[in-house]
Amino acid sequence: MHSSWIPRGNYIESNRDDCTVSLIYAVHLKKSGYVFFEYQYVDNNIFFEFFIQNDQCQEMDTTTDKWVKLTDNGEWGSHSVMLKSGTNILYWRTTGILMGSKAVKPVLVKNITIEGVAYTSECFPCKPGTFSNKPGSFNCQVCPRNTYSEKGAKECIRCKEDSQFSEEGSSECTERPPCTTKDYFQIHTPCDEEGKTQIMYKWIEPKICREDLTDAIRLPPSGEKKDCPPCNPGFYNNGSSSCHPCPPGTFSDGTKDCRPCPAGTEPALGFEYKWWNVLPGNMKTSCFNVGNSKCDGMNGWEVAGDHIQSGAGGSDNDYLILNLHIPGFKPPTSMTGAMGSELGRITFVFETLCSADCVLYFMVDINRKSTNVVESWGGTKEKQAYTHIIFKNATFTFTWAFQRTNQGQDNRRFINDMVKIYSITATNAVDGVASSCRACALGSEQSGSSCVPCPPGHYIEKETNQCKECPPDTYLSIHQVYGKEACIPCGPGSKSNQDHSVCYSDCFFYHEKENQSLHYDFSNLSSVGSLMNGPSFTSKGTKYFHFFNISLCGHEGKKMALCTNNITDFTVKEIVAGSDDYTNLVGAFVCQSTIIPSESKGFRAALSSQSIILADTFLGVTVETTLQNINIKEDMFPVPPSQIPDVHFFYKSSTTTTSCINGRSTAVKMRCNPTKSGAGVISVPSKCPAGTCDGCTFYFLWESAEACPLCTEHDFHEIEGACKRGFQETLYVWNEPKWCIKGISLPEKKLATCETVDFWLKVGAGVGAFTAVLLVALTCYFWKKNQKLEYKYSKLVMTTNSKECELPAADSCAIMEGEDNEEEVVYSNKQSLLGKLKSLATKEKEDHFESVQLKTSRSPNI
Q1: Nearest CA to 679 among 547, 559, 550?
Q2: Domain 519-572+582-707 in CATH 2.40.160.20
Q3: What is the C-alpha separation between 273 and 270, in angstroms, rounded?
Q4: φ and ψ at residue 17, rounded to 5 degrees
Q5: Please, which residues bridge with residue 225 across strands?
Q6: What fold is seen in the domain 229-435?
Q7: Residue 839 has what pLDDT?
Q8: So where does this one cross the membrane (predicted)?
Q9: Whole-prediction pTM value?
């Protein structure tokens, strides 16, 4: 689709996308003058600037007037700039900065006037639909309704009113069509004294259809009576035809008389509009169109019993407006001590029935400064509820604006497209009424005393109606303070602040793993961590980044992450010193801004916009991957390289949107990485480069050495050195790789005395050992020798006994000379120590013994 400025009759409309489009007009001035124009600029998702260049394309000295201020809905602002003589090139430039998610409301410009130009050399005839009845007129006048004119007309010609009609500024008349159901609407009259309301049917004004044609329908008969709906809760009917608010201190459900609240209770103030017979006193309705005045003075919305619906209007592109004014929000007396950020909330139930590009806008104005669009719905939407939370006590105006189509149409094609609002509920309204009573704390004097506010962090005990402090590590509910159940336990790993208004992490976390205690200290990461993610590009080619700020823990639960909208520096109408009505600073635990670099759109500085809160409530910290329906899938981030468990911080945002009906949530995975010192590195899942895959749940991985557990005695071991000079050294070293930080320090190296042995003692010990070995060897040798001798002796005895007739020879254990020792086995030619001893023994035998031959003598008598 080609982006450009589009003429819309008596005004021109800017683009609605994220392209940069300029409306350019060149003019040559004979003398100094000025340029003046009127405009509507209500949506700061469009960047609107007006500047002037000379014929050298140099920007003129009008920097202070470059940024055009925002206007309120339906109001035309004016802008004027002085012009120098010579050539002036005027630029009206718009840039959409909404990243393609929804259509924006365009800038409208009309009545551009330039003074200082040379006199014209000729007069131009009036265009068709306009006229001039005086010579030398400055401009032409528009023909009124039901008239027309041709080019150069001096007056307008009337149409045949019974069969023709025309809009303002028409060049011809149009035949009136037959009437259809799209040409009338119904209304409900206020209740009469009998408690009845009448259904009335009216033609849409101005009436352009004919009833006298054959296929035309006639207006249905009016006057059908129906029972009036009951009064809204907090109101009563005192026998009259109207409803009145209950007096202070009383309540009613709308069907009964007002009754005082019982002792120990107080009215729950607010508004609950669910019956629509007449428009409530603090609501009003109107209609406007930027291009015509057809619907000025009309009701934009009509009551219809159990709902209120959009009215007919004058054109299909009218804005049908419904306003609700509330002067302030204040919690009940008993809840004054609940220091939560929520003061109240407004909830409405609606549905849209559309056949074209209808849009319902919900807008909020704070202290009558500027109306901002909070949410919008396009096309047909089923019956649903939407809640907006109030965080500050101020004067609020809530606006519902319905537009059937943004295209101007001469005929009515979408009259049956409508929006219905069934109920609007506002809690804790300052001037509200009560439909019920809630328990309150009583003074200690007597049971019937008036309600008193409880101190911060105290609930109302049911038995005594006295204030009692919430237990440790619980926070007080912002919705009710009655009973101990009003104190809600904090999530895992979190604690409550002193007044029990919020839960937070003090940056310390403890985990038991395999009989080992892991203590984490994230204090050095408590300052805000940042991540610039991108670049990304819109469908139109706009380059942008997502910038995230994370306030992890500490600071007594204060939200330290800030995201700015610097576009408001140029576009807000006025900023009162010290005023925080403009939320150009967004504070949260986690927030996101969209950054458009200066080179992307030709701005002088980078543009930060669309700051949104991703997390304003801390849920808990745990090593588990799931907490309160927030789940970190295993494949979302790389597998950790160590056995040290990751620690997960979980947050949520209380603000709901049409795409995130439960609000946004955030999970931050803290991973021990000794190589990432200091603040470490923050990253997003590779599968979800924008940090989220569904736009509602955001995931971050924060790697840092500061995310490692504190060191303990399990993280180091000892090494014992050798004993030197009577001393032994013991060293302590960290286990590698080191998966801890801070904690205990390594013990100092330890020196211990050790015993040294004297040299001569060593020699003596050696000699003794040698002697012992020698004695053992000799013992073995002589034992073996003895065994051999016994063997010889036994052999000799056996030989002697075998010779019966011979005298026994003399016993000899010696080895005869020349006799070989058959049993001796020689293992080596070289004599061993045992061999030498053997030789010595043999020699001694040869020297001391002689072999004697014994002669046997026989008895002669034998």
Answers
A1: 550
A2: no
A3: 10
A4: -110, -165
A5: 198
A6: Jelly Rolls (2.60.120)
A7: 60
A8: 759-783
A9: 0.64
